[in-house]
Amino acid sequence: MTTITEQPTAGEGDQLEPPSRLNDTLRQIMGGSAVISVLAVVIALVVGAILIAATDPTVQTTSAYFFSRPSDMLNAIWSSVSGAYVALFQGSIFDFTATNFVAAIHPLTDTLWDSTSLIAAGLGIALSFRIGLFNIGGQGQILAGAACAGWVGFTANLPFPLLLIVALAAGLFGGAIWAGLVGLLKARTGAHEVIVTIMLNYVAFYLISYLLKTPVLEAPGTTNPKSPPMHSGAIFPPLFGPQFSLTIGFVLVIAATVFVWWLLNRSSLGFKFRAIGENPRAARTAGINVNRMYIYGMLISGALVGLAGANQVQGVITSGFSSGIDSGIGFSAITVALLGRSRPWGVLGAGLLFGAFQAGGYTMQAAQNVPVDIVLVVQSVIVLFIAAPPLVRTIFHLPKPGSRKKPTPIKTLTTTEEVVSK
Amino acid sequence: MSTAVANAGIDESPIQLEKAVIKSWKTPIIFSVFTVLGALLFIAFGRSGDTHFNLTTSFDFIKIPILSVPTRQTGIVIPILLLAITAFGYWRSYIAKKVPLWLTAIFAILFFVGFLTWAAAGSTTPVAVPGLLLSAIGISVPLIFGALGGVITERVGVVNVAIEGQLLAGAFVSAVVATVTHSAVAGFIAAMFAGVLVSALLAVFSITYIVDQVIVGVVLNVLVIGLTDFLYSQVLANQPSQFNAPTQFPILPIPLLSQIPLLGPALFRQTVIVYIMYVAVFLVWFGLYKTRWGLRLRAVGEHPTAADTVGIRVNPTRFWNVLLAGAIVGAGGSYFSLAASPLFTREVTQGAGYIALAAVIFGQWNPVRATLAALLFGFTTSLKYTLVTSASPVPSEFMAMLPYVVTIFAVAGLVGHVRGPAASGKPYIKS
Asked: What are the angstrom distances between the C-alpha of B141 and each of B33, B106, B274, B329, B390?
């Protein structure tokens, strides 16, 4: 066995000085995930800015005479990009043009409202990632959850808090069943969950499209494939009064975040999940029933995504749902889970960020004529770069994490090998 | 080594290799399921009346009059034929022989004939079979290109969930380029470059930066959807005449062949993209199984360490073949804008990439089988549209669901085990 020595990437001068503690901490932060996340967001916003500027009509006309008067084009670029991002901020955090306080913080509550489903679904997907399962089936599970919650919400005639709870439970159940099926197939037959979840997305879509044409889900007396509105007892009440659209769904999602944190970090089930996620073979050797954990994991993951589905029909669109009720949250949730690095609090933060993009995106579209689809581009670029830290480090010339560490003594490695060979 | 020498000294007779007898019951079991299903639908829930088929178009050199068959009698004959094929399938499996692919094809065709007869019973407008086949091929074209690209990427060891994104990028870029240059050929070539571009991202992130391949694929799909949606609403929708009026590929009927009744119009009265597709299917099959390139490609996907040991450079092989696959899928994407519809619309692919992925798996990572699977999926989709007009008792949503359900059954191994390339999805890190 040859010895491997790590070459420090920093300059030669650094090697002579003893590194200070602050320097080390700084290096860890710079090389670590926090800075990578922020830089990925920066790169994505730059990509978004390039797209906004390139497609802006004023920029295009001024670019024709760029060489005779470059200031015109630069001004046009600045006004288009800053206008769009200011509108994004205004629509998602704080509207400084508003006359009173309620109107000024209205965007912030919109952000929280928009992020509710994203966080719930993101938690579900993140949980599956921690078990080493790729749950790409957010769309199908949201649809299943929404259909179940919605069906209870408009058929059962129960008083207010009871119907809300029953409908919510139905939503969790629907999502759990749809995902549990994947876990069952994975455990029993070894079917790859990526393929099965993708296929089940479409099955759910067509199944609900069909049911929306039958009396099971279709509103009576109409020909639209749309369900009747929810009973008032099933609708999430507003959190800060009727002038804000934010509902108690957000509180439920915070509770779900705490629950996932507790499950993963404090419960024995979560310990087993994480053990399987790290190394399923080692987990099996340690006596964990991996197949059973796959089923449990997918059931819980699906229930969390089902919470997003229930929130869609009980909190967001209460006037009756169609087969597009998931509104792309199933796939956004994957990016939320990735950006949050599959940690519950990280998912909460990522969900809030993407909720802000969504809320601000519509303001941007209305005020600056920048299509809201730019949000999808920004989100996916963020996730691509977060997933590839070495690329971000190369772009910003950041040091490698751990490049300060002493090379691990190889001698012990050889001795253990010798022991094993004996 | 020494034992072999010792053996040679004792026994001079030629070595008899032991033959493993593998009896695969997969195909006959599928046959049984469909025979039972057919018997249930066509006999137990049989419908009375006549079913009319229009078998020819005005172009054909032989005119066949409208064919009318009695629904109930046909519904009895077909399950009997299906039963016979199933029995033959069991016998072939019993003697440990494979059920030939052509028999499966005949079985599928018989089943669909029975299904059409049953579903369109009593309808006054005859079922236009050539039109049905024509639209089936049309829907299948992007699926087949996607499946071919998918087969190559998966065979070389990279999971390709980004087929959807590659198709969409191809469709978008071909629409813009064909409009600006007034040339469909330029659009077609540009579509291939667009597919390569998406593939390059997939390759850079999954091979160079070792990001999980499924994650990259999913995110790339979202990225391409976002980009095309943004550019569509910002540019294409505002100036459609300047950017979204692509010059179309003309329909090139092949003389004589296109006049064959029934199949001629569907197969040989098409645009040049379809003819390129025929060639591509053959080339990919030939390349994968008959050339050095294919052998190396499959070796890298099955056992990269062994391939590396014999001197094949694993990651460059993966990189270049992922790019090649992107070109193929991108070319398929151009079909949406240059042949299927006169312009690009938002998210025009509508999940075709995922069906193509399903076809790859259902076709067991084999280009010919994947093509047949894509054709099957295309046919069921086109059947969906035909049956809407002929007042079928089967809801169109269930027809649309079929490819996905079939794929779940296939991967769940309920009908035998589906095994992909061994190293697919695993990055190769040279130690």
From this structure: 29, 22, 7, 10, 25
B269 and B293 part of one domain: yes
CB B353 within 8 A of CB B166: yes
Of the two residues B251 and B14, the one the predictor is more confident about is B251
Across the range A193-222, mean pLDDT stands at 88
Tell me the pLDDT band of B431, cut-offs 50, 70 and 90: low
Burial (CB count <10 Å: 0-12, 13-18, 19+), residue B3: exposed
Chain B neighbors of A207, CB-CB under 8 A: 397, 401
Query: Is A384 among the domain residues?
Result: no
Q: How confident is the model at residue A172 (pLDDT cuts 50, 70, 90)?
A: very high
Which candidate in B345, B362, B364, B397 is best for mutational testing of the A interface (most A CBs within 10 A)? B397
What are the pLDDT digits (tens) for A33-48? 778 888 888 899 999 9
Q: Are B362 and B373 in contact (CB under 8 A)?
A: yes
Q: What gap in Å lies between CA A229 and CA A394, rounded to an integer?
A: 53
- Residues B301 and B177 both lie in one domain: yes
A233 DSSP 8-state letter: G
Show the domain range for B59.
26-125
Report chain A's mean pLDDT, rounded to a whole number.
84
Please tell me whether residues B88 and B236 are part of one structural domain: no
Strands of B50-54's sheet in order across: B67-70, B50-54, B127-128
CB B338 within 8 A of CB B187: yes
Asked if B234 lies within 8 A of A199 by C-beta distance, the reply is no
Residue B397 lies in a domain: no
Tokens 């209460």 map to which residue? A318
DSSP of B27-60: HHHHHHHHHHHHHIIIIIT---SEEEEE---TT-
- Residue A332 CA to residue B316 CA, distance in Å, equals 32
Q: How many domains does chain B divide into?
A: 2
Contacts of A126 (CB under 8 A, 6+ apart): A260, A336, A337, A340, A342, A343, A344, A346, A347
pLDDT tens per residue across span A9-21: 433 333 334 445 5
Which residue range forms the structural domain that includes residue A142?
101-368
**CATH number of the domain residue A360 falls in:** 1.10.3470
Q: Which residues pair with A85 in a beta bridge?
A: none
- pLDDT, residue A413, reads 40
**3-class secondary structure, B124:** coil
- Residue A406's alpha-carbon distances to A29, A403, A416, B343, B386, in angstroms, are 18, 8, 20, 61, 70
- Residue B72's CB is within 10 A of a number of other CB atoms, namely 17
Long-range contacts of A417-422 (CB under 8 A, 24+ apart): A417/A1
pLDDT at position A22 is 55
State how far the Cα of B151 lies from the Cα of B313, in Å rounded to an integer: 20
Q: Do A191 and B401 touch (CB under 8 A)?
A: no
Given a cut of 50, whether residue A379 has pLDDT beyond it is yes
Domain boundary, last residue among B125, B148, B169 = B125
Token pair of A398 as six digits: 């950041």
Do the Cβ atoms of A380 and B400 come within 8 Å?
Answer: no
Asked if the model's pLDDT at residue B202 lies above 60, the reply is yes
Q: CA angle B359-B361-B364, nearest 5°?
A: 105
* Mean pLDDT value across residues B381-402: 75
Q: Which residues touch A279 (CB under 8 Å, ≥6 apart)?
A: none
Residue A239 lies in a domain: yes
Q: What pTM was estimated for this model as a whole?
A: 0.84
Q: Is some CB atom of chain A closer than 8 A to the CB atom of B414?
A: yes
Asked whether the beta carbons of residue B216 and residue A375 sit closer than 8 angstroms, the reply is: no
Q: Which pLDDT score is estimated for A3?
A: 41
Q: How far apart are CA A131 and CA A264, in angstroms?
A: 10
